[in-house]
Amino acid sequence: ELKVEQNPLFLSMQEGKNYTIYCNYSTTSDRLYWYRQDPGKSLESLFVLLSNGAVKQEGRLMASLDTKARLSTLHITAAVHDLSATYFCAANTNAGKSTFGDGTTLTVKP
Amino acid sequence: KAGVTQTPRYLIKTRGQQVTLSCSPISGHRSVSWYQQTPGQGLQFLFEYFSETQRNKGNFPGRFSGRQFSNSRSEMNVSTLELGDSALYLCASSIGTGAGNTIYFGEGSWLTVV
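^ inputs. structure came back:
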């Protein structure tokens, strides 16, 4: 059974600082997703990573995938308040069957 | 272009009742998936449909069922509601089942069971 672990679960950052969220998964997966969720809102897709060494960047967020280590990272560069949200990673088995991490709640303070 | 539409947005049901939630995917999207989000269990996968066929099912009891229609619209049904079924139910659509397809989520249906 696929298990997905995220850490940290809570992250308080100062604006302008860098940090990384880690996502480990337990068995082979053919894709890795990162999502953002604002309080009381739905999920927003950020990235989908398919192959070993894949790297995707959007603004201050960069995601990478190491399939050998079964590890994905979401790196935040020079954090700003607007990035405050909960970030989830999810890995898939059987194509569309996703298993989610517990989420990382990010708070960016001025 | 309209996004993923879920109805109803909010509803309150009594234990033992049943509920049907509806999801209209983005036009042209043929893959629909459903998720449950609760504070205790987090985000959990419920079902995945493509071209009216259920391709995957999560670890939920048989009280949870779903279907997809020929126009790609989808419904999920929960029978004999329990207090623990109170959750945000999210529907998502994508063009197909390809690994690189972006998944778009609806706003969700907030279900409270009393």
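The CA atoms of residues 13 and 108 of chain A lie 5 Å apart. Chain A touches chain B through 22 residues (CB under 8 Å).
thumbs up if we can close this ticket
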